[in-house]
Design a protein that fits this description.
- The chain is of the alpha+beta class.
- 30% of the residues lie in helices and 13% in strands.
- It has a two-stranded antiparallel sheet. It has a two-stranded antiparallel ribbon with strand order 3-4.
- A hairpin with a 6-residue loop joins strand 1 and strand 2.
- The longest helix has 13 residues.
- The two termini are 28 Å apart.
- About 8% of the residues have low confidence.
Length: 122
């Protein structure tokens, strides 16, 4: 694992992180312009797309666990398994004001991960 600088706040974060653990800036995510499909204009042809140009995404957030709460150790273990990150990184993540475990997920993926945390009482 390598450390990279966040383009937003300049602090070091894991190259595997989907977002900056310091400021929440998305990392390794397609730029909004890349999500928009190009549409050729033809006179007399409707410009309304038949399907949405992008799909809504979901994310899994945890309550801040800066202080000890019941289930914190199990939540740390589950978070390490889900993100494949080290103990220091996961402790920093769960202690942040709004810990986002994963971002840019389908509804089913987000619900599946959330269920795992709910089973721990988080």
């Amino acid at each position: 694992m390598a450390l990279i600088k966040c383009p937003e706040c300049g602090k070091e974060v894991s190259s595997r992180a989907a977002f900056c653990i310091h400021c929440g800036c998305p990392l390794n995510e397609a730029a909004p312009a890349e999500k928009i499909a190009a549409v050729a204009y033809e006179p007399g042809v409707s410009m309304e797309p038949e399907a949405p140009l992008w799909e809504p995404t979901y994310r899994v957030e945890l309550p801040c666990m800066k202080e000890y709460i019941p289930g914190k150790m199990q939540a740390v273990k589950l978070t390490r398994e889900l993100l494949q990150i080290g103990l220091a990184e996961v402790n920093e993540l769960v202690s942040s004001p709004v810990p986002v475990v994963k971002d840019a997920l389908s509804r089913e993926e987000a619900e599946n991960i959330a269920q795992q945390y709910r089973a721990l009482g988080i």
